[in-house]
Design brief:
The protein is an alpha+beta fold. Helix content is about 50%, strand content about 15%. The strands form three sheets. Strands 5, 6, 7, 8 and 9 form a five-stranded antiparallel β-sheet that branches. A two-stranded parallel sheet has the order 1-4. Strands 2-3 form a two-stranded antiparallel ribbon. The chain starts with 6 loop residues before the first strand and ends with a helix.
């Protein structure tokens, strides 16, 4: 098989879809894993550099709060402010989606300032909350940020893989034989029809990509026991399925089936005796933008970890942070060219919101790298060396 050939992507976003009471999604698991693994890496870093490992617990708490609150407020402020002004309570409904990585980045930078300058002790079992201004010896702001960006890159890679499992933040059509047909919505919408038991979407190897760049696929629909005759199955295909393929906006993003054309299908019985409809249609292969970001961010994590491991206490303060800002947000700026816009107002903009927000991040990273000497602490004791 050609490595660059299109693939059909239909994984269920839920880990246990057949257990109604256990609603655990891949996105949530990968999000949580990012913090769990990051915490363990930070323990290693703090131990290697002679810093109190217990401080990592406080730092982790700040990071979790900052990431969730910052990402949510970032989406609210940058992407859909009017919607949430009309319904402020919906800001709390994070399970409905709407998190912005730029907001998370800002939130994390604020949280690190709070971590460096304030001591917080929260013990819910003893109803204790202590907050007082107290600097942490040997942990300047840039020192902490340099270490945090290592694990932020890892967490970002896992979160983007969670987006992939959710079939969200998708890329624009490739108009070629390369790409991903995100067909999960096709499966879900068709299986919602009462008379249908199971839906599969597969590549059609007998046909070739057409002149407009749409790729050949087959939608295999298995009807329930209640459909006894082929005539009834034909009616469902010609009316219900045809209507969904033509008029459902979540489907038309991934399936190209002209309204004027009749569906190309055949009806047969499978080995279980169930009536099956095999529909030949075209898919819209898209750039797997989430995968691009996940892979490149993971490589950035490995590179930053390598630099830290190689030099440890001799790393100029701000170096890792500057590299992180320049590399991550330059890539984010470029990836936006192959991604669908998040909200409609971006369609009228020369650069979308993700690109506009990435530019100051890149410039900040360049400024930090150009001014490393000025950013070094004058007193070595302040750095903890």
């Amino acid at each position: 098989m050609n490595f660059l050939s299109y693939i059909i992507w239909t994984p269920n976003p839920e880990i246990f879809p057949n257990i109604d009471w256990l609603n655990v999604r891949w996105y949530g698991l990968l999000f949580a894993l990012g913090f769990i693994i990051s915490q363990q890496i930070m323990y290693k870093i703090y131990k290697a550099e002679g810093k109190p490992e217990k401080d990592v617990d406080s730092l982790t708490l700040w990071m979790i709060i900052a990431t969730i609150v910052g990402a949510r407020l970032g989406h609210v402020i940058f992407y859909e402010p009017m919607r949430y002004l009309k319904d402020p309570v919906s800001i709390l409904k994070t399970w409905e989606g709407g998190l912005a990585s730029h907001g998370a980045a800002i939130g994390i930078l604020v949280a690190i300032y709070m971590y460096v300058n304030y001591y917080v002790d929260i013990n819910p079992f003893k109803w204790r909350f202590i907050w007082r201004k107290k600097k942490r010896p040997g942990q300047s702001y840039l020192w902490v940020v340099d270490r945090i960006v290592i694990v932020v890159a890892l967490t970002g890679a896992l979160i983007r893989m969670g987006n992939m499992m959710n079939s969200e933040i998708i890329g624009i059509p490739t108009r070629s034989n390369y790409g991903v047909v995100f067909a999960r919505d096709v499966v879900d919408r068709l299986e919602y029809i009462v008379q249908i038991d199971k839906v599969e979407v597969k590549k059609d190897k007998e046909r070739v990509i057409d002149k407009n760049g749409y790729v050949p696929i087959k939608i295999i629909v298995e009807f329930s026991d209640g459909i006894k005759t082929k005539d009834i199955a034909i009616q469902i295909v010609k009316v219900n399925i045809k209507n969904i393929l033509n008029n459902n906006e979540y489907i038309t993003m991934h399936i190209y089936e002209p309204t004027a054309n009749q569906l190309d299908y055949k009806i047969e019985r499978n080995s279980n005796g169930h009536i099956v409809a095999i529909i030949e249609t075209r898919g819209i292969a898209r750039h797997p933008a989430q995968l691009y970001e996940s892979i490149s961010t993971f490589l950035l994590f490995l590179f930053l970890l390598y630099l830290w491991n190689k030099r440890k206490q001799h790393i100029p303060e701000g170096l890792l942070f500057g590299i992180f800002l320049v590399v991550l947000f330059t890539l984010r700026f470029l990836y936006e060219f192959v991604k669908e816009n998040q909200v409609d107002f971006e369609n009228t903009m020369a650069l979308n919101m993700g690109q506009i927000l990435s530019i100051p991040m890149v410039l900040a990273g360049i400024w930090i790298l150009l001014n490393l000497k000025k950013l070094q602490p004058k007193d070595k004791g302040e750095k903890g060396e």
